[in-house]
């Protein structure tokens, strides 16, 4: 009697870390992604959760999402216990806090461009906007990162940004001429 072929499919798991300054909406984004609910309170400490997400094109991946505390003074070894072995980073800044894009820039300077990343401009449902300084805006333009206006409260833009990030990490196999013949 022969062995039955395995029907098990390997599902990739990716560690994705939310980073940004204090009170920019990281915990709200965390809860929106994992539980599809809005919570207005800020998180304290580290939150870690798992979510299965189907990427357009068919593959399902598991996201291990980390919501980590903010560190305003960034150092080269910043948050290494959180960022070690991460597969992607989501930089978060707030439309309502002019200094928050500077915090995202500080994280970028600490982390570098070694992992796939996107930038989320949170709280886009708010009427009030504080414009970041010219240096931070220049960084955002020069970083060449995909940037999204999002609202955890209104559930806008977060899923699109996350799916694009996951697609960048898990691209569909390329089609070769041999496969077409």
From TrEMBL:
SMART domains: RAB (SM00175), RAS (SM00173). It comes from the Eukaryota. Transmembrane segments: none annotated. Pfam families: Ras. InterPro entries: P-loop_NTPase, Rab, Small_GTP-bd, Small_GTPase. GO terms for molecular function: GTP binding; GTPase activity. Keywords: GTP-binding, Nucleotide-binding. PANTHER family: RAS-RELATED PROTEIN RAB. This is Uncharacterized protein.
